[in-house]
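Example 9 (inverse folding). The structure is encoded as follows.
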């Protein structure tokens, strides 16, 4: 083969989904005809084949030059690796014969100026982008799922990809395809997608080749993701000269599912087994080399070996941040060494060249580009967040090696919110969770949280659309209609968001409408198939219609649009969804089963109608709604015309909306949006549980911050976990705190302030977080203040009282004052404040004083209520404190406070806290305050720490939203029964002991693991700080564990003595091996446990090592079952400690004690 020439420009033509031909996938130079971009739809193959760009490339190669367009191949070859140039050079002989010479062919064509009269011998054709996966290494042009994914799609320049749609797509013209392939020569034909097994045109094309007798001269390669089967394959394959199916597989097991979102490993394996059994089909595999799969490549190649599958060479070059080059040299070196070892030991010879090529590329010297790697991290974070995945969980080894290489993984995201953030941001405070047994959407969702989350997310998106187009939004709407409400997925959220407005539930199903009236409080409206003739409500501000016009014919569309036009007040907006051409190919390919099952003749009829008229509907036989209910598709231009014809003004049309899962339209009724209400009403959110929030956690020039004091405390105090040493002046910190609070049953923060510092000013100025709040003013120095100061204090707060997020009691802003005795005259001050509020348009205030007050009754000082002071019932133990609070007689107009006391530490504190909070919530319907959210200096805080994680937050969530823990229920049962003796008393005591010993609730396990993980991750070194936890019971693992080295002592030195092993120095390293017996060590979190006096200290172990000696004794054990972990000795109190191992697998947590003991002198 020539040292510079390539067969591609002389033999091969690559045509993209929109008909644009390019030279090569790794040299994507566009070809032109008559000065414009060439296109297979209109240009002859002769003109495309001799486009000036490809002729110039042929000439350069004939002159012995290396064109820059081909630099990727030169780079691979310079590294000593395989290249696409060499692979194509060998493959072309399938059709040309072994005697064909590229050099001779180049010389013969030189006389004609490198223009060729012969046609291409190899066609690579892309039949659209219809696909069922969102592979991380793919792009919108080749996947309809990525094109529909706003986060993934945002990483590509819209001008960099072109997707053919509709009947104009070049590959939908059978005669054009026939013209391209007409002739007598044998050819290679590679068919790509999308996913060819989903694209009907692929199989129609293959059938045409068979029918015309051309298939016998075609060597066909079909590239698939391996997730689908087609019955036609077995029938058509024997008709071709050769039929090759190339399956793209980039990872093994969980990594495969991670890299190819939407795929299942078990389904792939089943389909591979099916493919290899199909007669006349040769199955090969094509792993794409990229930075996320090189470390585990050996496992994948061994999988290929087990099934005798031949692999082809394919390396990812674009986008560059996913290239194998985009890894630290250390990681590349380790990956290369593994491949070399595999190549030397047991690699199947047929795959040796590919494995060697991977190793060679990884061994190439290449400095890491920090910017490019940063893009990789952000891209990964974006997709992880939007898809609910985690690279750290799938490949913890990669993260460990990155840390060892000095790389700190960023938390930055560019285009995505996490699924958790979406849930938190969109969940209204109190959405009615009563669901009908007949709710089809609930049955489809299968989960009440997901059902409620989906409704909240849609309403969030609608709110965003309204504000975007100048509408005052739901908060100021007087009437809202949920059209096609069904059983109220959207209705219930609208009711929660608009308690001041009337919400209409409109549906053809009278039972569904009755449910929405009875259970959700909506106004019922039964509609029919002619809604423009129905008696419908008028003067509606917002109409919402989700997934109705996705199912109905054009006549119903027109009637419905006219009905909405009548319902809306001038300036009112309707938001509705439909199915655009974006979804048509997927449905046509057999996807979208949720919309019902349709026969092939029905699908053919829809295809014909859609291509002819731009609108098509198909009736779903056997539905429950009558009429022509089924599925409907509409081109965007049809929708625009119908909206205009109905007398509505189109505001926006989004072809593919991630928020709605369909195409979405917003349209307005022309006219001025008026509001004849006195003033826009402020929504009084359903706030009940309020946490006191102290924002003084930063250096202010006068004193150390609370964090500085906490970090220096002796003896050491627990330190922050999830949120770290956070600064409340940072908006992102406040957002994260609010999200965490909302998720665990906290409805609002009460900012404790003595002066108006940065955090509170920023909360007001930024309008974020969108989380209710109120203010408690505390006179920190206890000095009396003047009338002027009291007046100025209140005036400065007026903007907060006007804020829609501000907490209100009975519609009045809640202002809490501690140390009322320092006011000049509490009663006169309260009267003056109320007068100011009235004069400034704030309205009536609700003034609350904090205990103690200088009189017996709060009325005597002119205030409206009294907030319980935590100090009023402090006792020697937290248990006694809670008991005193629960037995205390509450004075009139009293608001209770529960203390989240964590210091001094007692393992039962969280149980007493949960019982205290639940009891107060059950006996009081008013506000309940929790002291506090972040009073770290007082030891009263809900924020997670590195000792017991989210234990107090989880207890809050249980008390406010769900069931108690088992231990709390036992205590409540004892309280309910009163003083019992005899068998009943003994039974209760035994039950209490059993629950205390054996309850392993999810929250407790989470607290243990979170604490150890957070501490180890935040430390940043291999030597980990221990996490102190209370005694707990875990099952032993089905496998085995062993500690066989402590420091420099090994074997008999530690196992041959009954005395504890002495620990000296500042730190010590433990070595050993452990296998859970149920999971590969790569997916197991390993912890070293030192137990003394009923308390455990847990240290995370990162380093897993190979132990061939263990494998020789236990052949079924994984090779990397060894471990090595270093712990600091200085933090250990003197005493003896029993050594144990905790293994957290994806499905269970195990504790295995050992016979070893260590002693800290």
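The amino acid assigned to each position is listed next.
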């Amino acid at each position: 083969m020539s040292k510079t020439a390539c067969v591609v420009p002389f033999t091969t033509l690559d045509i993209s989904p929109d008909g644009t031909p390019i030279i090569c996938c790794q040299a994507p130079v566009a070809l032109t005809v008559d000065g414009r971009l060439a296109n297979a739809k209109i240009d002859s193959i002769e003109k495309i084949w001799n486009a000036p760009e490809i002729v110039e490339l042929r000439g350069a190669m004939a002159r012995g030059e290396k064109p820059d367009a081909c630099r990727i191949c030169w780079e691979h070859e310079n590294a000593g690796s395989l290249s696409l140039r060499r692979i194509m050079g060998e493959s072309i002989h399938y059709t040309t014969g072994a005697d064909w010479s590229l050099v001779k062919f180049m010389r013969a064509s030189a006389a004609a100026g490198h223009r060729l009269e012969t046609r291409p011998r190899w066609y690579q054709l892309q039949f659209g982008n219809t696909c069922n996966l969102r592979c991380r290494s793919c792009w919108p042009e080749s996947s309809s799922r990525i094109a529909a994914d706003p986060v993934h799609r945002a990483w590509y320049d819209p001008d960099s990809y072109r997707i053919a749609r509709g009947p104009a797509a070049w590959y939908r013209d059978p005669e054009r395809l026939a013209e391209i392939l007409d002739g007598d020569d044998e050819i290679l034909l590679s068919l790509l997608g999308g996913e060819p097994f989903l694209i009907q045109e692929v199989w129609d094309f293959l059938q045409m080749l068979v029918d015309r007798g051309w298939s016998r001269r075609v060597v066909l390669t079909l590239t698939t993701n391996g997730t689908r089967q087609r019955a036609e394959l077995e029938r058509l394959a024997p008709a071709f000269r050769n039929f090759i199916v190339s399956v793209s597989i980039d990872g093994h097991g969980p990594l495969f599912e991670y890299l190819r979102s939407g795929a299942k490993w078990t389904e792939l394996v089943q389909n591979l087994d099916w493919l290899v059994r199909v007669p006349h089909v040769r199955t090969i595999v094509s792993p794409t080399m990229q930075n996320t799969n090189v470390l585990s490549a050996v496992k994948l190649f061994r999988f290929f070996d087990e099934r005798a599958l031949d692999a082809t060479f394919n390396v990812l070059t674009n986008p560059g941040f996913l290239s194998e080059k985009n890894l630290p040299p250390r990681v590349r070196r380790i990956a290369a060494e593994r491949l070399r070892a595999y190549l030397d030991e047991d690699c199947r010879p047929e795959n040796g060249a590919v494995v060697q090529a991977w190793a060679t590329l990884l061994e190439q010297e290449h400095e890491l580009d920090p910017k490019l790697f940063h893009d990789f991290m952000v891209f990964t974070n974006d997709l992880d967040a939007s898809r609910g995945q985690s690279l750290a969980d799938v490949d913890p080894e990669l993260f460990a090696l990155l840390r060892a290489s000095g790389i700190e993984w960023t938390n930055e995201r560019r285009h995505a919110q996490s699924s958790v953030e979406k849930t938190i941001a969109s969940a209204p405070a109190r959405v009615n969770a009563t669901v009908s047994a007949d709710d089809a959407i609930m049955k489809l969702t299968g989960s009440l949280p997901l059902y409620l989350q989906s409704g909240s997310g849609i309403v969030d998106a609608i709110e965003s659309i309204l504000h975007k187009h100048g509408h005052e939004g739901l908060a100021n709407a007087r009437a809202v209609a949920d059209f096609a409400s069904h059983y109220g997925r959207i209705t219930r959220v609208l009711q929660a968001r608009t308690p001041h407005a009337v919400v209409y539930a409109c549906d053809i199903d009278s039972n569904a409408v009755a449910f929405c009236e009875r259970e959700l409080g909506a106004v019922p409206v039964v509609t029919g198939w002619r809604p423009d003739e129905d008696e419908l409500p008028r003067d509606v501000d917002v109409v919402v219609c989700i997934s109705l016009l996705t199912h109905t014919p054009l006549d119903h569309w027109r009637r419905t649009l006219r009905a909405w036009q009548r319902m809306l007040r001038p300036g009112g907006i309707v938001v509705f969804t439909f199915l655009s051409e974006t979804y048509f190919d997927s449905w046509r390919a057999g996807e979208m089963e949720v919309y019902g099952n349709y026969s092939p003749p029905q699908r053919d009829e829809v295809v014909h109608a859609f291509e002819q008229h731009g609108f098509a509907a198909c009736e779903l036989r056997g539905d429950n709604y009558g009429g022509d209910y089924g599925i409907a598709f509409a081109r965007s231009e049809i929708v625009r015309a119908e909206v205009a014809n109905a007398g509505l003004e189109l505001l926006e049309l989004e072809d593919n909306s991630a928020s709605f899962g369909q195409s979405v339209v917003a349209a307005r009724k022309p006219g001025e949006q008026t509001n004849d209400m006195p003033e826009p009403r402020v929504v009084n959110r359903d706030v009940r549980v309020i946490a006191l929030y102290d924002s003084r956690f930063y250096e202010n020039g006068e004193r150390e911050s609370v964090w500085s004091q906490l970090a220096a405390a002796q003896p050491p105090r627990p330190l922050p976990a999830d949120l770290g040493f956070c600064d409340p002046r940072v908006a992102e910190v406040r957002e994260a705190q609010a999200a965490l609070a909302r998720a665990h049953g906290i409805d609002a923060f009460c900012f404790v302030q003595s002066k108006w510092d940065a955090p509170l000013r920023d909360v007001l100025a930024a309008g974020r977080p969108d989380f209710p709040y109120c203010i408690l003013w505390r006179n920190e120095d206890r000095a009396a203040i003047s009338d002027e100061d009291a007046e100025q204090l209140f005036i400065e707060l007026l903007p907060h009282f006007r804020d829609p997020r501000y907490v209100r009691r009975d519609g009045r802003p809640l202002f809490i004052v501690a140390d009322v005795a320092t006011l000049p005259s509490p009663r006169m001050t309260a009267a003056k404040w109320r007068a100011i509020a009235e004069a400034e348009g704030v309205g009536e205030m609700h003034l609350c004083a904090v205990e103690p007050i200088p009189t017996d009754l709060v009325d005597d000082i002119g205030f409206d209520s009294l907030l319980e002071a935590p100090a009023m019932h402090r006792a020697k133990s937290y248990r006694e404190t809670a008991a005193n609070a629960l037995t205390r007689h509450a004075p009139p107009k009293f608001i209770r406070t529960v203390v989240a006391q964590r210091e001094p530490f007692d393992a039962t504190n969280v149980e007493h806290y949960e019982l205290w909070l639940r009891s107060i919530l059950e006996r009081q319907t008013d506000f309940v305050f929790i002291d506090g959210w972040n009073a770290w200096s007082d030891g009263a805080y809900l924020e997670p720490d590195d000792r017991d994680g989210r234990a107090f937050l989880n207890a809050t969530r249980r008390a406010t939203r769900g069931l108690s823990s088992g231990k709390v229920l036992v205590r409540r049962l004892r309280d309910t029964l009163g003083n019992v003796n005899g068998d009943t008393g003994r039974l209760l005591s035994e039950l209490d002991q059993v629950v205390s010993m054996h309850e392993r609730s999810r929250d407790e396990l989470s607290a243990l693991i979170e604490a150890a993980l957070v501490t180890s991750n935040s430390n940043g070194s291999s030597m980990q700080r221990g996490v102190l936890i209370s005694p707990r019971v875990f099952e032993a693992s089905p496998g085995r564990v062993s500690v066989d080295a402590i420091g420099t002592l090994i074997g008999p030195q530690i196992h041959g003595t009954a005395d504890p092993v002495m620990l000296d120095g500042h730190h010590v390293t433990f070595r050993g091996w452990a296998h859970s017996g149920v999971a590969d060590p790569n997916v197991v979190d390993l912890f070293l446990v030192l137990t003394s006096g009923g308390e455990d200290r847990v240290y995370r172990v990162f380093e897993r090592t190979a132990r061939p000696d263990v494998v020789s004794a236990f052949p079924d054990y994984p090779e990397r079952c060894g471990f090595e972990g270093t712990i600091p000795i200085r933090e250990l109190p003197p005493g003896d400690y029993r050594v144990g191992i905790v293994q957290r697998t994806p499905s269970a947590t195990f504790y295995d004690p050992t016979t070893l003991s260590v002693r800290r002198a």
